[in-house]
Design a protein that fits this description.
Elements (H helix, E strand, L loop, with lengths): L6 H16 L1 E2 L5 E2 L14 H26 L4 E11 H7 L4 E9 L3 E8 H11 L14 H22 L5 E7 L2 H5 L7 E11 L2 E10 L4 H12 L6 H12 L5 E4 L7 H5 L17 E5 L2 E11 L2 E6 L5 H23 L1
Antiparallel strand pairs: 1-2, 3-7, 4-5, 4-6, 5-8, 7-8, 9-10, 10-11, 11-12
Length: 341
């Protein structure tokens, strides 16, 4: 006949079973306490994902700076300022009274994001495209013509977003400019969003470009982004040879120029055609050889037949030359990208 369990034995069995559920044995025999799942952290973006997002947005900022600057034909700087996760209601509180906010459809996620361009930088952009000098106007609502012009600028910005995010299959589709009331209904106040801010600088104005995306729907895309970043990229020998061939065909501006010197302002002010200006330099002094606007060394001007040249003074380190050429070629590549766009 089996043993009958007393109430104390039954309580001891339940206590032992609860202890086994509460701890998990590892391979080393150590016990790891379970972690409580916090449902409020659903959709939370990890630090690794934020680093991957920063990499993509840095690329977007550089491309937008070149493309938009070439289109506007004016100096323009775009820099990633911050990327943070915050509730949607906090993003709404940061919106200015007069601002340009448009909705973006995120495909294939089927979600909606927002792109904000402050009027502090919007009005100078419109002023440049209308033939002005790029000065900021007093804060006011845009006219229909100004809104149409700014819409084309935002569409160009969305194209650069697509180029930056295309590696993970995320596509941004511009929809329309939204009113303040419509923006407030885009998401629930407590929904977590990813807010990325970019500083846009022009010669006479500066402002902020904000991108607001729902954080929950980005998780699958962000995991793919991290896996793409970890995957080693290999180029074939043919690709290396093609790159070397293309780089060898690029032209780099080279010039000889005088070193810095001091001249009297009265001598410069009285210059007329035919005047001979005496420079405070000895005849034997060497000029500066600059390649791609970078100082490469000292040289003397010479002539070979119909060609002008530079005779280097002393030897130059090959590593130094390679560094200078790489920098100059990078500048040429940026200019080529601007011209293509």
């Amino acid at each position: 006949m089996g043993k009958q369990l007393e109430q104390g034995d039954i309580d001891a069995l339940f206590a032992a079973a609860g202890a086994n559920v509460a701890t998990h044995a590892t391979a080393d025999g150590d016990s790891i306490p379970p972690e409580r799942y916090n449902f409020s952290r659903a959709g939370q973006i990890s630090n690794e994902q934020m680093r991957a997002i920063s990499t993509v947005n840095d690329l977007f900022a550089r491309n937008l700076m070149h493309t938009l600057g070439a289109w506007l034909r004016t100096p323009l700087r775009v820099k990633l300022v911050a990327g943070e996760q915050l509730p949607f209601k906090e993003f709404l509180e940061r919106l200015s009274i007069h601002t340009f906010v448009c909705s973006l459809r995120l495909e294939p996620l089927g979600a909606v994001g927002l792109l904000e361009l402050e009027l502090a930088i919007s009005s100078p952009i419109v002023d440049v495209l209308l033939g002005g000098a790029g000065k900021a106007w007093p804060v006011r609502e845009l006219t229909d013509i100004e809104e149409a012009i700014l819409t084309s600028v935002v569409q160009l910005t969305v194209q650069e977003l697509n180029l930056a995010w295309q590696s993970v299959g995320l596509e941004f589709v511009f929809e329309k400019r939204e009113t303040e009331a419509a923006v407030a209904r885009m998401m629930t106040p407590g929904e977590k969003t990813l807010c990325v801010s970019f500083e846009v600088r022009m010669p006479e104005a500066q402002g902020v470009l904000n991108l607001c995306l729902p954080a929950v729907v980005l998780n699958a895309i962000l995991r793919r982004l991290i896996s793409e970043g970890d995957r080693p990229r290999r180029r074939s020998k043919e690709a290396h040879m093609r790159i070397r061939e293309l780089l060898g065909q690029m032209k780099i501006g080279t010039l000889l120029q005088f070193p810095q010197m001091r001249l009297r302002a009265s001598e410069v002010a009285t210059l007329v055609p035919g005047t001979v200006l005496r420079l405070p330099l000895p005849r034997t002094s060497a000029a500066e050889l600059r390649v791609g606007n970078l100082h490469l060394g000292r040289a003397h001007p010479v002539r070979t037949g119909e060609h002008r040249g530079a005779q280097l003074e002393g030897e130059i380190d090959r590593d130094e030359i390679s560094g200078h050429l790489a920098h100059a070629l990078g500048q040429q590549a940026d200019e080529a990208t601007m011209s293509v766009n």
